[in-house]
Design a protein that fits this description.
The chain is α/β, with parallel strands linked by helices. It has 14 helices and ten strands.
Length: about 350
């Protein structure tokens, strides 16, 4: 099966045709012999992931049904924030609690609601390779520009380098859109081994990785080991966003961006300008709120904080429960004490 790479201007080209183009084959009818779906004369480039992506929450109503109206309202409000795009069905989207039909429909609604210049990255990871391949194809058909594939983890004891290389290679070989690796050990109990990342970075349809482990040394080593592979690394949390930029990450997928999108984009801008002192001061103010909406209070905390800033967090789907009154007070302190409220 041919693998296609989406270009920045939105065209598709088979990555296996790169050699043909380099040899000077510039006629559409000739390039189609090499498997190109749609010919373009521009150079082959991977999607540019530089920037901030909020991993969108999935609002639920009181009956725990997906509240698409509130989701679309959030996207309308986010339209004024200079995000690079949106991650849909990441950990903060409660994707593990959604049916397959709901997962695909949420992606379809997001793609329809946001402007074409915003990337839509869909979480397509499932436990089996077979199911992940199917979900990846469905996400691409729903309008995703790329997919983010979390590590399968139920049989984590067998998820060694060989198993993960096999899994991601099979997914990337068949995916109609670029693939981003996703390592979130707090939820899965495993990291993608660095040797596996280096091997996978050479795959023409694997363009990068989101690392949520919080180990900046590891992020730096991944970036160093994949140098020259056009492999883009995204920090997986606002708590170490500055550290990620310092060691070479290109952006971040940060839960806190659902609440403080503008400040996180400002931090990105300060880093790109080399204004490290200002970036450091801003990073300090983000640490406690970030801890509060991630490992301290999780998705219920994130959804509560969104309400304070004019967004629709909505309800969680069971078994997740809303914060207690005392937890809500503590959460608010973390924002007030850092001058966000």
């Amino acid at each position: 099966m041919f693998v296609f790479r989406r270009l920045l201007r939105g065209s598709f080209i088979n990555v296996n045709c790169a050699g043909a183009l380099q040899k000077g084959i510039d006629r559409p009818e000739e390039c189609f012999k090499f498997g190109v779906r749609r010919f373009t004369s521009v150079s082959i480039e991977k999607l540019d992931l530089r920037g901030i992506f909020p991993p969108l929450v999935t609002p639920f109503n009181k009956k725990e049904e997906v509240d698409y109206h509130r989701l679309e309202d959030n996207l309308h409000r986010y339209s004024s924030v200079p995000f690079r795009g949106f991650v849909v069905q990441g950990s903060n989207g409660e994707y593990t609690y959604l049916t397959s039909t709901e997962r695909i429909e949420v992606v379809r609604r997001v793609r329809k609601a946001v402007s074409k210049d915003k990337l839509v990255v869909a979480g397509s990871g499932c436990e089996s390779t077979h199911a992940t391949i199917k979900m990846t194809t469905n996400m691409a058909e729903a309008g995703a520009d790329a997919v983010m594939v979390v590590t399968p983890c139920y049989y984590r004891g067998q998820m060694n380098s060989a198993s993960l290389i096999h899994h991601y290679t099979k997914v990337a070989d068949t995916s109609p859109v670029p693939v981003i690796l996703y390592s979130v050990p707090a939820n899965t109990g495993l990291d993608i081994p660095i040797d596996a990342i280096v091997k996978l970075s050479a795959h023409p349809n694997i363009i990068g990785m989101k690392d949520s482990g919080g180990d900046v040394t590891r992020i730096g080593l991944i970036i160093h080991k994949t140098k020259g592979m056009d492999f883009q690394v995204l920090s997986g949390s606002a708590g170490f966003l500055l550290g990620g930029y310092i060691v070479g990450a290109v952006g971040g997928v940060c839960a806190l961006a659902n609440v403080l999108g503008e400040p996180l984009c400002n931090l990105q801008n300060l880093c790109s300008l080399g204004q490290w002192e200002k970036a450091r001061e801003l990073q300090y103010r983000l640490i406690e709120p970030n801890i509060a909406v991630t490992r301290k209070y999780g998705i219920p905390g994130l959804k509560q904080a969104m309400q304070w800033f004019g967004y629709n967090g909505g309800n969680c789907r069971s078994p997740l429960q809303p914060l207690t009154e005392e937890q809500t007070k503590e959460l608010r302190k973390d924002f007030v004490s850092n001058d966000w409220l």
